Amino acid sequence: MTRRIPILSNEETKPKKQIYSSLVEGVSEAIKKDKNKVRICEIKNSNTYITVEKKDWKPSLDSALEYYIGTEEYEECSKIKNLINKL
């Protein structure tokens, strides 16, 4: 299944969940396909993408882990910990 990259608009005030979800999916896919960067989202009507380089995956996943701990979504926490261990 092809991964869908979220498109964010300037009006969105809380895109964290979308971004972190895309990060987790993207890093997982990138590890499997041996890629060096991940597209996280696109800025609406700008043809601009936010990407994360491989060297920044761990700190980004750590940030996502904190978010999911705060929202008590422990299944996501488990996925993130597994990804961190694969890096």
Taken as a percent bin, the fraction of beta residues is 15-25%
Name the average pLDDT.
92
Largest sheet report: 3 strands, mixed
Radius of gyration: 13 Å
How many structural domains are formed by the residues?
1
**Beta-strand segment tally:** 3
Strand order of the largest sheet: 1-2-3
Unreliable stretches? none
- Write down the secondary-structure element order: EHEEHH
Outline type: globular
Task: State the end-to-end CA separation.
Answer: 23 Å
Detailed description of the structure:
The structure is a single chain. The chain has one domain (7-86). Helix content is 52%, strand content 17%. It is built from 3 helices and 3 strands; from the N terminus they run E-H-E-E-H-H. It has a 3-stranded mixed sheet. Strand 1 (7-8), helix 1 (16-33) and strand 2 (37-43) form a beta-alpha-beta unit. Helix 1 packs parallel to helix 3. The model has no long low-confidence stretch (mean pLDDT 92).
